[in-house]
Amino acid sequence: MRRQLTIEDFQITSVSGKIEPQLAPGVSPLGPLAQLVGTWKGTGFNQIWRPFHGSQDRFLELNETQETLQFMEIPGDIPNRGFLQADINLHGATYLQKINDVNVLTNGKPSGIHIEPGIWVTVPSTTNPTDPATVARLANIPHGTSLVAQGTAFTVNGGPVINPASITPFLINPPHTPIAFPETNLGVPTTFRTPPADIPHVTQAMVNNPNVVLTNAIAGQTITSTTVLRISTTDLNPPTSGGGTSNIAFLDGAAGGPNAKAAQMDAIFWIETVQGKDKDDVRLQLQYTQTVLLNFNGLSWPHVSVATLRKVHDDDDD
Fold first, then answer.
1. What would the pLDDT profile of 242-288 be if each residue is shown by its tens digit?
2. Are 255 and 268 contacting, i.e. CB atoms less than 8 angstroms apart?
3. Do the Cβ atoms of 123 and 132 come closer than 8 Å?
4. What is the pLDDT of residues 187-229, one digit of tens each?
């Protein structure tokens, strides 16, 4: 009988020099990440400019998606030793993200297009560097990219502010001039875009601004509060340093490269408290927008993914 690896009987802690707890009694060590723990399911939209080795340099892939995202708290304190300042404890949660294309079937089931294991952590305020408390996501992408994205978390009354997202490529070097391509016009037939039969519900508005999928999903909802997690592989100030991406050799390429280097990732996650019609009908909802810049052939090509997920329980219907 095969047994899955679990962390139920595991607790991480400092040894050979205890780092004392830095949290007040009764306060969740996960802080703004605490509500993430559990399983989330929902739907979304994915867009990516793929490099094309042939008669032109690009192919625009569009996907209608279904997603499962699961978080598990890491028990204990994650010790980080300091040379420039006193030691600190991090706290975190592992996650596993699974995304399928709902319209393209493999063996009669939605085709898997993405799987991602990783960790979210909370970082307390530090003196060297001088930063307030932050959060960070450590992600591993099966195409051959690992990344660290760090930023801030805060909670506001009401719903999220969701700004438009663009998929228009632009020059890697300044002045970063945007360059439009005809594949973004769904009214113009092309063999360099996902076939219409595979994207029956994708509209021109979604291609123009993938974040419209998020605003449409919450239209008419009563959202009483939102916890915002804003992270980037570049310095958001705070934090003043840290973060970045790392790619396998194939993605970096050699002469004339890269093949498709993941150069930057920016994301915003919104943990929303949604009030239903009844007083006791309160549920959690998770939305996110993420943009990865893929560099090839002199341009940065935005790869935008969005989703709206709800927290599910063992007695919920899938």
1. 999 999 999 999 998 999 999 999 999 999 999 999 988 999 999 99
2. no
3. no
4. 999 999 999 999 999 999 999 999 999 999 999 999 999 999 9
- For residue 214, give the nearest of 286, 265, 137, 114 by alpha carbon: 286
The DSSP secondary structure of 176-238, one letter per residue, reads --B---GGG-TTS--SSB--GGG-TT--HHHHH-TTHHHHHHHTT-EEEEEEEEEEESS--SS
Closest CA to 40 of 312, 318, 315: 312
Give me the residues paired with residue 149 across strands. 137
| CB count in 10 Å sphere of residue 222 | 12
Q: Between 3.90.1150.10, 2.60.120.10, 1.10.510.10, 2.40.128.20, what CATH number should domain 31-312 receive? A: 2.40.128.20
Strands (E) located in 10-166: 38-51, 58-73, 78-80, 88-106, 109-123, 126-127, 130-131, 134-141, 145-157
The Cα–Cα gap between 212 and 165 comes to 9
Q: Give the integer Cα–Cα distance in Å for 142 and 146.
A: 9
- β-pairing, 145-157 with 222-232? antiparallel
Give domain limits for the chain.
31-312
14 C-beta neighbours (distance < 10 Å), count: 16
Q: Which two tokens stand for residue 65?
A: 């998606």
Q: Tell me if 112 sits within 8 A of 100, measured CB to CB.
A: yes
Whether 305 contacts 290, CB under 8 Å:
yes
pTM: 0.95
What does the DSSP 8-state code read for residue 240? S
Report how far residue 208's alpha carbon sits from residue 302's, in angstroms, rounded to the nearest whole number.
12
Rounded-to-integer distance, Cα 92 and Cα 31, Å: 10
